[in-house]
Structures are given as C-alpha cells and as structure tokens.
Amino acid sequence: MLKLFRRRKGLSCDQVLEVLQSYLDGEIDAGTANKVAAHLDECTDCDLEAGVYDRIRTSLAARVEPVDAGVMSSLESFGARLAAGDIPDSDPDET
Amino acid sequence: MVLLMERPQQATAFERYVVPEIDVLYRTARSLTRNNADAEDLVQDTMLRAYRAIDRFDGRYPRAWLLTIMRNANINRVRKKTPDLLDDPDATFERSAEFADHVDPEAVVVEPVFDAALETAFESLPDIFHEVVELVDVNGLAYAEAAEVLGVPVGTVMSRLHRARRRMRDHLAAAAADGDTVPFRQQRAALGGAGETEGAS
Predict the structure, then answer these.
(1) Are B133 and B125 spatial neighbours (Cβ–Cβ below 8 Å)?
(2) How does pLDDT run across B66-92, given as a tens digit for each residue?
(3) Which of B63, B36, B76 has its CA nearest to residue B146?
C-alpha cells in the first residue's frame, strides 16, 4: 500500500516529458524540479530524452557569435554622442 | 514616479543603464533582424528612443525596459517593410506542433554529424520558432526577457521554444533514420552515460 502511494506521488513519463524542457532551462519550481530529477534517476528513456535536449541546447549555445569589435565601437560611439547631447535629426516613433 | 532630468543626469542615467546593455541589445537585434546592418540600425534606434525616454525610467530592470523599447522599434521597422502582419503567427503552427509521445531517443543522430544535422534543423525552422530559439538558446535570454522583446506572454515563449526544440529533435531522429549514424544510446554508453546500463534493445 505504501509502495503504491509512493508510486502515485512520483511523476509519470508523460508528466516528465511535458515539463522536461522547462526543467532543463531552470524555469520550473524547485518541488517539481526535484520530482523530475528523481524520475530521471530511475527512468532511462526519459534520461536519454533529457540528454538529447541538453545536447541540442549545448550545441545551440555554442553558435553564439562574438560581436564584431568595429560594430561595438561604432555603437558605443553612438551612445557617447547621445550622452553628450548630440541627438540625430531623425525622429523615431514614441515608445 | 516620473523624474525630469537635467542633461547631465540624463547622460549619467544613459551611461549607467543603456551603455552596459549594448552588447545584449546588438545580439538580440541580430536575432530579430537576421541581418548585421539592420541589427546595428535597430540598436541605434533603440538607444535613441531610450535616451529620449530615460527621464521617465525608474531605474528598475533596465534590460527589460530596453528590450521593450527594442520591440517597439522593431515593430516600426518591420511595418515599414511589410505592412500586413496582423495574423497570429502561432495559429499557423497549432496543428503541426503536437506534443510528441515518447519518441525513441535512441534514434537521434549524434556526433560527429549532430551539429550539422542540428544546423539544418535550426535553419529550417519557421521564423517565429527560429527567433525564440536564437534569443533563448543562442543568446541566453531568460524566458521573461524573450517575452519582453517579442511582446508576447512568457507562456507563448515557452510554447514556441519547446515546439521548436521538438521539431529539431524530430529532425535529428529523422536524420538518424536516413543515415548510417551512431544511435544516441550507443554513443551515450560509449561516453559512460545512462545508456550503458541498458542491455541491447
């Protein structure tokens, strides 16, 4: 009986898959995160699925390109001119 | 509370709140425009708007404030190029992005062709999926920050992001099925991952 109760307290694979990406992004509450972690410890299929998404995220993060130094310099100069009160004539819409 | 600032205060506030975010603004603009020249223009437009509005900024969450300004600047930029963008972009993808049940993780392609297959999958994503992946996964914005710059609820960011990743994941699975690539389970086992405890299946 106790075993059955414990099993019901845990998350099913479907429940884990539903929150898996938010879990990997650190965007779910600690209680749910603990339950997901416990499930992944015991479920090879879900753990493999988590590994796939983790690998996707890692690979995408590696795509980030450094901002070209010339562009940064140009934008910083633009900012410095604004701060100095040198406002361009163009009139963008109000925010 | 709205404070009217003298120019030196305005300049100080600008340097304090805006200048440190130029890097993030440019990366975000690049995600939105997918074009370096347009991105630079968008950041300049955002900075100009920020400068003009800085006396009304309360100093809290400058990045979120700037991303909101960038969103409005970008809306204006896009409208000038394509006037009719009133359709709900999410509706188009509702039926095609159903939640996948346990798709066999073993089928997903891995090294050394993983990155190449992922590149193809990423570049073939529809724009609304591509941009959210680029904002969150590539450029590291939080869900809430991406929501700010896209002008959508956080739940929409999450939904688009998760669908996009599932599409890429399914593309990787299809790539594995098409080629003689190493299944994920075997690769993970070779690396000492969870797969090593599984018997042949």
Answers:
(1) yes
(2) 999 999 999 888 887 765 544 455 544
(3) B63
